[in-house]
Amino acid sequence: MTGSRAMAVLIRPVAVPVACAALLTGLLSAWVATGGGGTLRRLPFKFELAAVSGSGSRDAATYLVIKNLAGPDQLLSARAPVSGRVVLARRGTGPIGAAGTLPALAIPARSTTSLSPLGADIVLIDPGALQEGATVPVTLTFRHAGRITVDFAVTPAGTP
Known about the structure:
It is a single chain. By secondary structure, this protein is of the alpha+beta class. The protein has two domains: about 1-40; about 45-155, Sandwich (Immunoglobulin-like), CATH 2.60.40.1890. The protein has one helix spanning about 5-35; strands spanning about 45-55, 60, 60-70, 75-80, 85-90, 105, 110-115, 120-125, 135-140, 145-155.
């Protein structure tokens, strides 16, 4: 076998995969350059002190500090797998009822909003038994930021 023939025998098996890789790299680069690859979404919020009070009563109060790093938004709803119903409520004026629930909660631009049982709150209705030390994922739905899941620590009754 001559040198050029031996070289052709060695190159042939790798030529097709190399050509395919080059073509795919070019196509992916064009897709990203035109914006098809999307962008990383920077969360406009920082969450601190996310806790749910494991009181054993029918409703579970939550504590949450939301630091808004961007423009104004609204918290529209919340969901938790441990509770069939989660409501936004304004507490301190009586039991949770039609008058106590909120359709949405304003989150002002570049501000800190604190939710607790003493004011605006996320309430888990009949969550069942909550184990202290466990975490409960709560999915918050914002008008502009979309859905964000926050892990709430289960704490003793009445404590954040």
